[in-house]
Design a protein that fits this description.
185 residues; mainly alpha; elongated
Length: 185
């Protein structure tokens, strides 16, 4: 029975990823989750109390995987500047990934305070990855610099997700150039 519930929960999360990826916030409804998984709508409520609960669990499951991919890209870089570039490029490469699109599809304002805090903490862990590289580059406030670099990444993510006129590769190259110019001081 526990295995069956675990499989159903995983199916609901996968359906939620697809709905968010394909149709954004409006697409994530309990009737749509029920339809995608073949469950009765009332059964969906047995697993999740709200859309926010679904998103919170998606973040808990997917964010560590995403962060590990960013960290692995940074570890492959030979220099501090290379780590900064890898940090920016890998995050922007993940924009098209269903896990990423699902995590950002619902705004933090729709989540309860506990969920927002978990997401903030996860993002804080991501920003912390680049602090050492920025300290190595000589920044006297590497945590602040890391947050500003993440701001460049966030702006580029929004630009890519909006389907901007520029190619995602052009946006990525511009974000990398801005971040590197900024961290070089």
């Amino acid at each position: 029975m526990a295995e069956h519930r675990s499989m159903q929960r995983a199916a609901l999360l996968d359906a939620a990823r697809s709905l968010l990826s394909d149709g954004g916030t409006e697409a994530l409804t309990f009737p749509a989750l029920a339809e995608r998984t073949g469950l009765a709508r009332s059964s969906v409520y047995e697993y999740f109390r709200s859309r926010a609960a679904v998103v919170e669990e998606l973040c808990e499951a997917d964010f560590p995987v995403w962060a590990a991919e960013v960290e692995a890209a940074m570890e492959r870089a030979a220099s501090a500047e290379g780590k900064v570039e890898a940090y920016v490029r890998q995050q922007l490469a993940l924009v098209g990934d269903r896990r990423h699109r699902a995590v950002v599809a619902i705004s933090a304002s729709e989540l309860d305070a506990g969920a927002r805090e978990k997401i903030r903490a996860a993002h804080g862990g991501l920003v912390a990855m680049i602090v050492a590289a920025l300290a190595e580059l000589g920044h006297d406030q590497p945590r602040l610099a890391a947050m500003l670099v993440q701001g460049v990444v966030d702006a580029a993510v929004r630009r890519i997700e909006l389907g901007a006129a520029e190619d995602p590769g052009v946006i990525t190259d511009a974000a990398v150039a801005m971040a590197l110019r900024g961290v070089r001081g």
